[in-house]
TrEMBL record:
Highest taxon, organism lineage: Eukaryota
Protein name per Swiss-Prot or TrEMBL: Lysosome-associated membrane glycoprotein 1
Taxonomic source organism: Oncorhynchus kisutch (Coho salmon)
Domain Lysosome-associated membrane glycoprotein 2-like transmembrane residue range list: 220-251
Predominant cellular place of this UniProt entry's protein: membrane
Region (Disordered): 31-54
Amino acid sequence: MTQQHSRKQPLSIAFIALLAVTLHQSFAATDAPPTAAPQTTAPPPAPPARPERGNYTVTNGNGTACLMARMGLQLNVSFSSASLNKTVLEVVNLQPNLTKSSGSCDLDSATLLLKDDERATSLTLVFSLNATSSKYHLSGVTLLAAWPDMHVPFSASNRSLDYLRGTLGRSYMCREEQTLAVTVNFSLNTFQLQVQPFGLKGDQFGAAEECQLDEDDMLIPIIVGAALAGLVLVVLVAYLIGRKRSHAGYQTI
C-alpha cells in the first residue's frame, strides 16, 4: 500500500503542474490586447489625361470672326468638399463636345465665354489691346462652377493678368503645356494653344508668334547638334595634326 501511494503522488504533482501551465497560457492569451487592423490610405485619384483641343470662335454683329481660339483647357480648382469635409484639389478637363462658346468684341477688348451646362461650369477669358503698342494680352479670367461635391458654388476671378502676349494681326501660339495662375484656389492649364483676339482677316489665323516654352524646346536640339558638330570638328583636326606629324617623322628618318 505504501509503494502504490508513493507512485501516485508524483503523477498527481505532474498533472497539477501541467494544468497550471495550460491555464496560465489561456489567461495570458485572453488578457492580451487585440491587434489593431492596419489602416490603409486610399491613393489619390489619378490626374485626367490631356484635354482634347477645342475650336472656339466669336463673331461680331455682321457674322465676321473677331476672336478665334484652338486649345485644350484644364481646370485646377481647390474647393471645400461636402463629402470629405475638407479642402480638396480637383483637376477637370474642359470637354469641347460639351462646351458652348460665345462672347463679344470691342475695339480694345475681346471676351470668350465657355460654358459646360452638364457640369455647371462657366469660364470667361478677357483679352485687352493696347492701341499704342499694338500688343494684346489675356487680362482677365473668371470661373464659376457648381460641381456635385462642392459645399458651396465656386467662384474665382482676376482682372489684372498679363498672359498670352501677342501682336495685333498675329496669333499667339504655345504647343507646350503652360499653367496660368489666376487665384490662390484656381489655375488654368493650356495645351496646344493658338489664339487671336484682334486683327483677324476672315477665318484664318495670322502669322504665329511662338511662346518662350516652344522656343526653348526647339533650342535644345540645336544646342545638342552644335555640340556634336564641334566634337566632330575637334576629332577631325586632331586626326589631321596627328597624320601630319607622322609624315614629318618619316621624312626625318
